[in-house]
Prior knowledge:
Mean pLDDT: 92
Strand content: 35-45%
CATH class: Alpha Beta
CATH topology: Urate Oxidase
Number of helices: 7
Distance between the termini: 65 Å
Structural class: alpha+beta
Helix content: 25-40%
Number of domains: 1
CATH superfamily: Urate Oxidase
Shape: elongated
Radius of gyration: 23 Å
Amino acid sequence: MNAPDRFFMPDIQSSADHRRLAIQQVGVKGLRYPLTLQDAAGEAHPTVATLAMTVGLPPEVKGTHMSRFVELLERPRAALSPGDLRRMFADMLLHLQANSGRIELRFPYFIRKTAPVSGVPSLLDIDAGIDVWAEPGGAVQTALAVTVPVTSLCPCSKEISDYGAHNQRSHLSLRVQLKGEMALDELVRIAEDEASCEVFGLLKRPDEKWVTERAYDNPKFVEDLVRDIALRLMQEPRISAWKVASENFESIHNHSAYAEICGSND
């Protein structure tokens, strides 16, 4: 045996497969990795993302190169915008020699907010996600998703009560498919603008008075929330398709109120 032969290792996954069945998605899932994301103002947001990274596998190939997905993440890079993620996706297809694939990121996204009266700063955590994908022969697509905690106040309760009205914390879930550049914090702002009131990580007593009165002056049913946000998304030229859902965690019932609406701008 000569010297080079001692170090030869067969590459089984690149061998031919006799079953001749293409696989639409193969890769890694549940991979947690620290990433830094960039907001609309160019500010960096460190987070830990849970990723799924997959590619399409031709019918004649036995397996994909699983280690190459992690190698891609290990490359040095600055804060990522959605555009940077599309470039990462293109690198993944090139590195894995694939013509289709998908990258899905799910992560907590922290937004620094300022209390409305006292001005005290605090962080608010948003559940967020970014998907980048392409079908064989198709263009690269990008979708953003956020779940934003807000306050909603019941219009009916306000109307029939001599004083007060019941309110609840709501989760507004927005998912948009993009045809232009858009940042996650822009989507969060749309959701907060259309709620009875936004929520904050830290409030002083003057702030509590402000948010209580703000919600009381701006009552909304769960149906109002999704319709008002939908109208905003329909007017956004950077969005091609969208879905809005609201789950209101009722304060006078042991169940939630829920509404969902979706549509296309094309």
